[in-house]
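Data availability (excerpt). The following record was deposited with the supplementary files.
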Amino acid sequence: MPKFKNFAAKKGKLDQAKNNMFVKLAREIYMEARKGGPNPDGNFKLKTAIANARQINMPNENIERAIKKATGGGDNVEYEEIIYEGYGPGGVAIMVKCLTDNRNRTAADVRAIFNKRGGNMGESGCVSYMFDEKGVLTIDREDRELDEDTVMMEALEAGAEDVIAGEDSFEIITHPHEFESVKTALESGGYTFDSASIRWVPQNYVKVEGENADKLMRMMEGFDDNDDVQDVYANFETE
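Predicted structure:
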């Protein structure tokens, strides 16, 4: 019985995490459809959001519902993008990207998550100077026969700035303004991406261990559980 309980609890957490991702991506799809129109062929940001949603097996009806709401088939909610900055345990620099329809609620929620886990939210600009805004295209290496030199050569020819080859994935780094053209060129060459987004990439990393690492992981979970938080960028590494 204890083993079954542990399995059920773990499955429940995984299901909740997946549902959280569906909520966040539906909100992004809604916002991009509102801003740039509901046709993904003429709206690159919407097309990218839909592709990211499909990579995590988000049901088509969820995607279609979000687009329908954006075009007048539901409540006309206006979201704004806000990035909050602060420090986590161990002096880790953190940027929290949110889509919100209530700035006061979201600011209070994000501040509470910082405070409860041994961190503090700061003023705009307090940590962003430690990050660079980049386009990041990720290719999972599992079940794919990809030659490292070929990926690097074709990515650089498409206009990428760099390719980071890890054990599990390739990360193709672009200037934000070149993100669309690089992604389109590589897709035309047959590449598919497991995720694609404009992100804040740390210039350097801080190693966090022990109690600070535990608090930091709980802080990341707190952000992940909040529907208004779309992404979190942080300059930490753990063993």
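Summary of structural features: The chain has three domains: 2-73, 80-129+203-237, 131-202.
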